[in-house]
Amino acid sequence: MSFRNIFESSSSSYSPQPCHQFTFSQIELATQNFDESLVIGRGGFGKVYRGTITCGKLVLDAAIKRLESTSDQGPVEFQAEIEMLSNLRHCHVVSLIGYCNDGQEMILVYEYMPNGTLADHIHKCRAPLLTWVRRLKICIGAARGLDYLHTSTGIKHGVIHRDVKSSNILLDGNWAAKISDFGLSKIGPINQPSTYVNTLVRGTFGYLDPDYFQTGKLTRKSDVYAFGVVLFEVLCEKQAVDRSIDEEHWGLVTWAQDSIKEGRLEQIVDSKLRRKISPKCLKEFALLAKRCLHSHPKQRPTMAEVVVGLESILASQEETGSSLIMKFALRKGPKFMFSPNLDNSVGGKCLKLLDMYLYIVGGEDRIVQRFDYNTIIHATENFSEANKLRSARCYPTYKGKLQNGQGITVTQYSEVLEYQQRMNEASILVKLEHENVIQLLGYCVDGTKVYFVYDFAPNATLADMIFDPVCNLLDWNKLYKIILRVARVLVYLHYHAPIRIVYRNVQPGSILLDESFNPKMSGFYFATTINISDAVYDSLVSGNRGYLARECGLRGRLATKADVYSFGLLVLEAVTGKSDLYLHTAKSKRVVLTDYVGINWLEGTLSNILDPRIDVDAILMTKFVEIGLLCVQRVIVNRPTMEEVVDMLLGISSISLPVSEMRARMIDQESKMRERMIKEETEMRARMINEESSDLDSPINEDYDTTAVEEFISELGPR
Fold this sequence. Notes:
Transferase(Phosphotransferase), domain 1; six-stranded mixed sheet; alpha+beta; globular; Phosphorylase Kinase, domain 1; 5 domains; 28 strands; 16% strand; 719 residues
């Protein structure tokens, strides 16, 4: 039975996603006629190119795999991968955008993964270095993807990947792992764990399950075995098969297991990771890898059990790491040791003693440069007015250029002005490595003034683009790319950063734009770390008024869903061109933006309030608005996660916006408006009575004219 027949015979509730068919000329245009400078990968199948391709009304970054005539994969594998990925959608499985099947040309178009493969980082020394915590998170993501394939595809048949290896685990911009390359995959019933598929043995030496190799019986436990090899690769940074050493130790599995038996577990750990892994976590990780490699398939864990095991190891490592005293490196000067438990009250004194007090809560060292004051003076042309920028929170901010030509942004703070927030921002930024997060290049101290030096974003902020009515620089493709990348940054902060973070500053003014209109998230002074329970309570409400979720102000509860709320408001602002807190209707009455958009969505009148500068299909824009409305729901558990938001933006998952909640919001909005109108009318009449002395004893008429209220409500839509 073919893949298509199996998927079509599955539950009728399952709806496969469309896969775009490109012409060969579109592929040539996207790859600049297969320019060698765009090659990002090679293999037995052929070459992979990075390109920009138009899909409908969207312009997407893509990885374009061109199968050569001499490829190990042929038409069967090509068709299998198309049918497989067209029906599988998961945040840890690579997305297939489309394909081209033109004569002899067989080409697959995937979403672009900017951080390459896991193999690139552990075997080819690709920067940056993968910390131990990040490696654990990558392993957890890959394990979740395989568990989905084995048991949770939404169809009656699971998928056995059959070629699990580090080079088939891709890493997106948030370092989230994605399983790729389904050319060798097989399918089988998911409700029978012991079910096997008789097949010719295919796969990659070093990862092949010995039981499968000997019997030809392929089971899901064959994927588990291969994943065990990947775990040892991650720990040891050795290839599955290394022919550069003596033949006895060619195989990683044999070498690692023999070393562990001889009591040399710590010696097999890569030198860059030693002393970074707690002894307890090391033992548990090695034990889990050994269980995956058990000679009897039935004794191996399921991928669901592997996920649980890895998550437990991660939680233990993070708990251990948070109490360690870590060192912070300065490019000019000695290395200092700081404890995260150090009393912050000494912060002001530390400024005089060490120039700046920075601490890191766990993780790897990060070098930040200390600039001398003359360098800052020269770069900003003595803080000239011509270089002065409009800055958030009224801090003097200047653009500048270093002697090497690098553009910078310099923000000035005083020693006593919100010192803790500056330290909070610095301690977080030095931990983050993401192409869409502003980089803290360094700092300078001059007397009582502190200057932070960031990389420069020449296109100002997203707020300048969407709130300036005469600005025509922001078309649909740019806006979509910005919103999608902001969503991916939040996924990174919430789940994949070295320390989990609630950003608390999602707003257009905090999103800087570089020369290519790529977003750079800035303003991390409100950010706070969260634990694995995804919530923390703060008695001090910090953030931008209008963008804070209700639960932050009411209960001081900070969680990732608070950022989701702010992101939803950002989306609604972007599509309407209206500013943050209130907008004014034609009757000059104030209304909360989220309610106003929701009511127009209910009434089918979105076209009346959308920004006319954004020229895009009405159906696509409606879906975009619905994503924003999903995010601003008042019931916290009803809001999607940022991972789910990214899937919705990519069209991977469907949208289900509860009409009942929107109607409840409309009724609540009307009730508040009535109460406010009554209060204003009563106060106005009281003033009039006080001014007219002859009528001091006249009662206030409580049956006042409600025409203004009714006009406003009718403008919003029927009750």
